[in-house]
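Standup notes, protein team

Yesterday: finished cleaning the Cohnella rhizosphaerae set.
Today: Sugar phosphate nucleotidyltransferase structure.
Blockers: none.

Input for Sugar phosphate nucleotidyltransferase:
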Amino acid sequence: MKIVLLSGGSGKRLWPLSNDSRSKQFLKVLKDPAGRPESMIQRVWRQLGDAGLQDHAYVATGKSQVEILYGQLGSDVRLIAEPSRRDTFPAIALAATHLYAMEGVSLTETVVVMPVDPYVDGRFFAELAKLERALDASGADLALVGVQPTYPSEKYGYIVPGSGVAGEDGRDGKTAGAHEGGEEPFVTVRGFREKPAKEEAERMIAEGALWNCGVFAFKLDFLINILIAHELPIQHEEMARRYEALPKISFDYEVVEKANRIAAVRYAGDWKDLGTWNTLTEEISEPLTGKGTISAQTRGAHVINELDVPIAVLGLSDVIVAASPDGILVADKALSPMVKDLLKSADQRPMYEERRWGRYRVLDYAVYPDGREVLTKRITIAAGRNLSYQYHSLRDEVWTVMAGSGTFVLNGKISSVAAGDVIRIPKESMHSVRAEQDLEIIEVQSGTLLIEEDIVRLELVWGDIMELCETQEGSI
């Protein structure tokens, strides 16, 4: 069994902490068993490890999230990066071609696809094997995980089970019936219902409907055959090359709704979608994170502050106050799901990002009358990590080392850096730095166009950078 975690999202529902590069799954607002800050994806990755499944797991993601994934999960995580953002069908198709063509996975292998951020207990991952058994026992094209509802939610989608006997074809082409043989029962699926009214949800639950948590499985040959039928590539490199030409369509529309036979396995444990501030704060143990004060007259409020200035909340109840370099949100928790619609026309570069080497925060940005742009960042490089060996074509940089120490490389020449050093890096200059102790640097960029894409990476690994420097010195 192989597991593909889908990591995407535009970063608007948990604004201002989330942005286009730091989606909700990367926010370190939960706690691990030792009480340390933990993001949703770190929690899921830890749970996969506890279940012995990490070696079978891959993360399908966009290019903008590669750095933060390496930073949070480590350099050994297996990533399948989309060349551009499309939708779930292209993303899963790309992952399937990677497993088939790059990993040599058997066509009979079961592939489990799931969101990267479900909030579940560890037992959930141990039960994923039920999906494989349901596929084998039912002969279905797809097997889904259905969560046993605990209340008639109007926010979730529902899996509608069939009636009759297993294997009896349903009129809607999804197969009707139920199967209770063996130790792993499954139900066959008659259809789906999205976000029903409370009364309808109550009726469906009484008839055995399950919450659709977005976790499903198929045999690899099922999807490879779909790609062949659509005259799409099954070789990974060719799929990546043609990726931007693929239609933006969801896996549900392109595959699930057209599948002839679908089975579902029942999960009776805890499951939540922490996709909005009102649901996320239910799982945040402390009402105050960061600098601030909450008055005794305040009830049910949460303050999450990433800024260096304090926030005080007096007398407001059931509110979320979230502050980051990207902005400040003050909202009634019940209305907080509307923040995505409120900001749908907003267009701002991310002011905070995490990378594999550490993090940075934008302190200031200015455009002068002559067209020159100046961007100031506060960069933190974790001890033992390094920037790539890189150069920029459109900007000059000045670094002021505020704290820590490390090894700096400029055009093949190696030197030590420490607090108080000022380094000038002209455009087209190849440079890198490795932190011996946590390095804090104030970086001032200046040029006519300051964009994150203005970077050419020559090497990523420090040992490879040192070898390249030796070659450069020898060629002088």
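Follow-up from PR in the comments: The domain at 2-272 is CATH 3.90.550.10 (Spore Coat Polysaccharide Biosynthesis Protein SpsA; Chain A).
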